[in-house]
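Predict both folds.
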Amino acid sequence: MRLLGGGLLRSVRAQVGQWMSERPIPGYYAAFLEFEDGTPATVVHNGYGYFLGADLVPWGEDRQRYTASERAAIRAALRAGRRDESGEKQALRIGGEQERAVFRGAGARPWVPEDMGLAVASLDRADVRQSKHGLCIHSDEGKRELDLVSPHETTVSQRRAELVELYDAVVGGKPLWHDGRWGMATLEVCLAIVESAEQRREVLLHTRCPFGRTTTRT
């Protein structure tokens, strides 16, 4: 969301939900973000695994890594204290034991709203959202789809862009847009969501990091 808005966020007003006692961290949030130029953004995330975003598109299915029945079994294991949450998460990180099978498996797969959900950008002369293989543009000229999948690609990988950017920076010396400064600014937003919920007020942000530029502080 920061990338789409140019990176420079002014403030956050949010509320979180912590509704599962066996997982004592926020599992839901709704936040209103204001960029410095006045651009608004609303983000909502529910991490409890009951409803999947893939159900929002006709080509989606009710599973990501797990089926609905497997997700129910995981919640039961959490309640019983039998699940190693930390180990499971580490296995899914880039380079982890299960990362390649889950996120970079072989076979052509269309995009579906998984962890990052469905995004809609409302512009001055168009609305833009994700489509099966790229973007769907609703403009004054009507509706059209922009295919962003290379004909040489065999799969639409959820983490392909991250890996390509890292590879190009390390091997090819290209600019690393999502660098440590960018990460710190994003972390500030995450912490501000929790702080705003606790204090029930708008939280002003201080880390200034526009996309592709050097960080300055105010």
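Second protein follows, with its predicted structure tokens after the sequence.
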Amino acid sequence: MGQYKHIVNYKNSQYFRVQNLMRDSSIFNEDRGQGVFKKHSYPFILQDENNNLFTPSRQTILDYFKQNKIIWWNGQLTNHPLSSQVACLNHLFSIREDKQAVFSIIKNIYPDIIDILPLTTDKFLPAFIQFEAISDDDHLNEVNSIRGSQCTSIDALIYGEGRDGKKILFPIEWKYVEAYGNEDKASGNPGITRIKRYTDLINQSAQLKSNDHSIYYFEPFYQLMRQTLWAEQMISHRKTETIKADVFIHVHVIPGENGNLLHKNYPCSGKGMEATWRECLNDQSRYVIVSPEALLKTVDRDRYNTLFEYLNTRYW
């Protein structure tokens, strides 16, 4: 019961945080909530989904998604303020064109980086961070290749060069208040399709241990498995992919207070999230967990004062 209370309290604390901000601040542009989400009205849901985005970047974000033909989670910009997709954009979009800022956040987690390279696969507003990234071709047997929908998309992607001259992918998975049940994604007809899709790729993976596949079909490990395979296949097909990489570092951004995700005792392993996932990896140095605050701690706060004030108020 104690663990359950800990799990519930983090998400609830964020609901209360949002409601207090709606009442006491202008962070949501005077939007006082009571909006409709999945046909029900809630005090913490925004009336206008546009108020979910950091105002100085809002229109550019909307244009970026539209012009690059990216599908929003659930089909449109959400009015739910606890969205991890929105949190990722609010933290990173404003710095995406600033090479030094992007370099600083990678240097912070991977000291051997020497350069950050532009991601030219964005046809509109290419920069040093890409959102909802996919490969040029489908390498995961997923059939569809639509950014943000029906295939493995990376929340944010950074591309650089290491001290050894190798090109590096930094796929970033962003979490906020996520908590997961114990659904087995290998069950039923959808599970048969998933097993058929990923089994050979897991067996051929240099990073994923293949002695027990079952763990890869429980969240959040199902997502991490697919992202790992995505990065490996980008590297395997570097001759034909626009983004040509030699290695990857998988970055998992999670608020340190999110005990429901980090400290749940996962039935598939009997351990917490990090310990469970690291035991699945052959090279644990290729996986990094960092909080949003720690990820951005080396970015110039004077230059991005307005952004940091917003992030401190809304998220931190």
